[in-house]
């Protein structure tokens, strides 16, 4: 039936791709933990633009930056939609910006982010980021073995401060505990697999309890409860702070003040709550994972670490901490940042963009309602552009005389494309820089040692989902 429908819908052919089974399409042929590996394999067989079907959806896998830009940036009105929005809504995450279809509601979210997170405003958050970096240093000095917890708290504290105006001073902070737990539940359960399952069998959610559902109903109610807590708890705090006139500056307070005595219309208030929750979910794990990967890279490459420390010493001098004023004089720190996000891109397959209307690209039909998946991993591990791509080598971003190369595009590839590009990218990039520069100025990273002084070699294991996180404790 599908073949017939396909033929009837157009005389143009779809891009080449693997043969799929009826109904299931290619879903079973994709490595569920590391889909990018399957997509890269397909590139070798079918080229840079591959057609497949996942959970009944037309899906285009893009393995080249040029095609990604041609489609998502040159024709943004056709490639900024979301296809599985209904299933995301059933799961309870449909109001997160990344899942909202191309609509006025989504545009309102983007306007709210733009007011607080655009490049020229982000510089005003540098003092907060440096203050959090100092706290990170103190926490690491006290309990270095808990480094992951400290990096996570650093990432979360920055968002809670800048978006919500909330100062997290301890890892036992009650609001941090709520949003942290909520984030965990949402991130672990909002995988493409669960969304696909809800999409294929939405009736499962309404089925009587005795029908086995593989735990879907339980998952959905846990995600919904977490979303509710994450959305409301920070606003209870802010409302109180506004009433007590103790609220400091933040994205939320700025927007409240903009509306002044008129008060926020309900529609803006709802969008603000959702956008703030979205910023926390989208911004915390991604920043944390990037920093975790940085620590791992430093443990593996003491030579790089030493060179960066020498550069820091020569620019800042011993006993001082770097600030953003020193950034231009510290190209190796930026090269390490770029290489960290290239080496292990935190979101290896971007977020899927939906196709609004049938389109034609290089003679191929791109069907309406298709998902476009960009294989960021493959683009950043392309041997022609990054020789020996699995090696961590920051020098690929430096000229022979030690200045940064013009290849800052990696930033953009890692943060997505077109109208859907990550609105938190300037903030994220500065948060990661502040942490990397301050950590290298203060610590040596090396493998843990046992009682006899022998290195405890631990192969890391990553948790692969929408984003890549360290899974030692998962
Ligand atoms: C290293 C850190 C980060 C990385 C690697 C990252 C990466 C990404 C990527 C790849 C996308 C999908 C873009 C697309 O669909 O083309 C995205 C979307 C998004 N990011 Fe980030 N991000 C990071 C940090 C942040 C931060 C700090 C915030 C907020 C404060 C944030 C907020 C968002 C939001 C709201 C979206 C959805 C945008 C939309 O669909 O319109 N991200 N991010």
UniProtKB/TrEMBL annotation:
Cofactor(s) annotated in UniProt: heme
Keywords tagged on the record: Heme, Iron, Metal-binding, Monooxygenase, Oxidoreductase, Signal
GO terms for MF: heme binding; iron ion binding; monooxygenase activity; oxidoreductase activity, acting on paired donors, with incorporation or reduction of molecular oxygen
InterPro entries xrefs: Cyt_P450, Cyt_P450_CS, Cyt_P450_E_grp-I, Cyt_P450_sf, Cytochrome_P450_fung
Binding-site residues for heme, renumbered to this chain: 422
Protein name: Cytochrome P450
Source species: Coniophora puteana (strain RWD-64-598) (Brown rot fungus)
Pathway: Secondary metabolite biosynthesis
Entry's family note: Belongs to the cytochrome P450 family.
């Amino acid at each position: 039936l599908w073949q017939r429908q396909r033929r009837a819908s157009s005389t143009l052919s779809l891009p080449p791709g693997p043969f799929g089974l009826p109904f299931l399409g290619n879903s079973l042929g994709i490595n569920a933990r590391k889909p990018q590996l399957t997509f890269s394999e397909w590139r070798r067989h079918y080229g840079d633009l591959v057609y497949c079907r996942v959970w009944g959806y037309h899906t285009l896998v893009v393995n080249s930056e040029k095609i990604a830009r041609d489609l998502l940036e040159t024709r943004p009105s056709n490639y900024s939609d979301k296809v599985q929005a209904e299933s995301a809504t059933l799961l309870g995450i449909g109001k997160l910006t990344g899942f909202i279809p191309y609509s006025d509601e989504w545009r309102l979210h983007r306007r709210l982010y733009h007011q607080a997170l655009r490049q020229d405003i982000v510089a005003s958050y540098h003092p907060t980021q440096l203050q959090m970096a100092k706290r990170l240093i103190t926490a690491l000095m006290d309990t270095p073995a808990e480094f992951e917890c400290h990096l996570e708290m650093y990432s979360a504290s920055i968002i809670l401060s800048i978006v919500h105006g909330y100062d997290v001073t301890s890892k036992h902070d009650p609001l941090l505990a709520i949003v942290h737990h909520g984030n965990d539940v949402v991130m672990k359960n909002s995988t493409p697999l669960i969304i696909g399952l809800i999409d294929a069998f939405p009736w499962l959610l309404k089925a009587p309890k005795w029908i086995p559902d593989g735990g879907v109903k339980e998952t959905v109610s846990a995600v919904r409860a977490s979303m509710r807590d994450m959305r409301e708890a920070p606003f209870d705090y802010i409302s109180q702070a506004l009433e007590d006139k103790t609220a400091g500056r933040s994205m939320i307070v700025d927007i409240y003040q903009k509306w002044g005595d008129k008060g926020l219309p309900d529609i803006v208030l709802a969008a603000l709550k959702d956008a703030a929750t979205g910023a926390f979910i989208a911004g915390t794990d991604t920043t944390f994972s990037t920093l975790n990967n940085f620590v791992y890279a430093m443990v593996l490459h003491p030579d790089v670490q030493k060179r960066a420390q020498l550069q820091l010493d020569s620019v800042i001098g011993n006993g001082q901490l770097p600030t953003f004023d020193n950034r231009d004089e510290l190209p190796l720190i930026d090269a390490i940042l770029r290489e960290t996000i290239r080496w292990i891109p935190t979101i290896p397959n971007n977020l899927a963009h939906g196709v609004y209307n049938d389109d034609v690209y290089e003679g191929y039909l791109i069907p309406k309602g298709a998902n476009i998946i960009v294989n960021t991993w493959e683009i950043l591990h392309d041997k022609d552009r990054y020789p020996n791509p699995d090696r961590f080598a920051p020098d690929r971003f430096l000229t022979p005389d030690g200045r940064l190369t013009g290849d800052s595009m990696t930033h953009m590839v890692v943060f997505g494309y077109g109208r859907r590009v990550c609105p938190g990218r300037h903030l994220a990039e500065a948060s990661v820089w502040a942490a990397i520069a301050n950590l290298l100025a203060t610590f040596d990273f090396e493998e843990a040692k046992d009682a006899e002084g022998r290195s405890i070699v631990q192969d890391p294991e990553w948790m692969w989902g929408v984003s890549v996180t360290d899974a030692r404790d998962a």
